[in-house]
Design a protein that fits this description.
This protein is mostly helical. Helix content is 59%, strand content 0%. Helix 7 runs antiparallel to helix 8, helix 7 runs antiparallel to helix 10 and helix 9 runs antiparallel to helix 10. The longest helix has 25 residues. The radius of gyration is 50 Å and the shape is elongated. The protein starts with 8 loop residues before the first helix and ends in a 19-residue tail after the last helix.
């Protein structure tokens, strides 16, 4: 009796690494639900509140200065070397390359460009929103502060909000956003939260950012992740156009062209066919009636009795006996004419 070999855990792992035969029929695409809209609105309000507290030089600015004077890198110098490497998880270049490699494999495996396109859209939104806020507010960092207790706004800096923190939230949070199962989404959400929280606090430890910069960076990254469902229709249209262009270029390289689309002519209903047939008959009858009549050549009309009998050529039938016996007999129905008298 033949039995199949039971798959080990390593076999199942390698099976998941293989490419799927075709694109999955149902890909879970997050939608902009009411819960997500409420979270987005609350996060946006929190973002604006942090900006306002820094602009008016409130208690948050005083907390920034207290943390800066505390100098965490001097309090715990033994972890300084490790955190110098850990903060790389928030730099845009290395993290974008690592996440793009993973999402590129996902795109190849599932026959879809959505993971890579989603990453590109999120990074574009990150550069536009965070970059504009940095340039617009122009806050200086702790190492370049000029006046103790001031908010250091509008002095040409580019520190507020924290780009490292926002980038960590977006690049690692996009893995949770694109997760295919709820369990994977929960685990990846927790992992991205821990990584982004650690990157933000590491920048405060190293003295490169104020504490308020990090808090605003968390809010900025979360806003981008929450707004991604609004970009899903655009991502779907871009994917369809790119795949269509790829297919056309592939067909042109192979010298093949797409099959022509058959044109189907809808058959008219039975009543319409009868109406067309009736109209055609009426038009033919009108054309015949409008044709000019044929006139015969003018001449006297003779009755049938006045016509001389015609014997067919080559006929062996003898002529009528009455005609031979009485040659002077006139045809029936004609008036007799008087013969002229001749003198003897």
């Amino acid at each position: 009796m033949r039995t199949e070999r039971n798959l080990t855990r390593l076999d199942r792992v390698f099976a998941r690494l293989d490419r799927e035969p075709e694109r999955p029929a149902h890909i879970d695409v997050p939608k902009m639900s009411r819960h997500r809209v409420a979270l987005f609105s609350a996060t946006l309000g929190f973002y604006l509140a942090i900006v306002w507290l820094v602009v008016i030089t409130s208690w948050l600015v005083r907390l920034d200065w207290q943390v800066m004077f505390f100098r965490p890198y001097q309090q715990w110098p033994e972890i300084h070397a490790f955190l110098d490497y850990y903060v790389v998880l928030g730099q845009r270049g290395p993290t974008a390359v690592m996440v793009a490699a993973w999402l590129g494999w996902r795109s190849w495996r599932q026959h879809t460009l959505r993971p890579l396109l989603t990453l590109g859209v999120s990074l574009l939104l990150l550069n536009l929103t965070v970059g504009a806020a940095k340039i617009g507010m122009g806050r200086l960092g702790p190492h370049y502060a000029t006046t103790i207790g001031s908010n250091e706004m509008g002095l040409g800096g580019d520190i507020f909000p924290s780009g490292h923190t926002a980038n960590a939230v977006v690049t690692w949070g996009i893995l949770a956003y694109l997760a295919s199962t709820p369990r994977a989404r929960r685990w990846l959400s927790a992992l991205s939260a821990v990584v982004s929280l650690g990157v933000g606090l590491t920048t405060v430890y190293l003295g490169t950012h104020w504490l308020s910069d990090v808090v605003l960076g968390w809010a900025a990254g979360l806003l981008i992740l929450l707004a991604l469902p609004w970009c899903e229709p655009l991502i779907a249209r871009a994917e369809a156009r790119i795949l269509d262009l790829r297919d056309r270029l592939r067909d042109r390289a192979r010298g093949t062209f797409p099959a022509p689309v058959p044109v189907t002519v809808p058959f008219p209903p039975r009543g319409a066919v009868q109406d067309e047939t009736t109209a055609a008959r009426e038009s033919l009858t009108a054309a015949r009636s409008a044709r000019s009549p044929v006139y015969l050549a003018p001449g006297p009309h003779t009755s049938r009795s006045e016509r001389s009998p015609v014997t067919p050529v080559g006929s062996r039938r003898p002529p009528h006996p009455d005609r031979l016996a009485h040659p002077d007999r006139l045809p029936r129905g004609t008036a007799s004419t008087a013969r002229p008298l001749t003198g003897g």
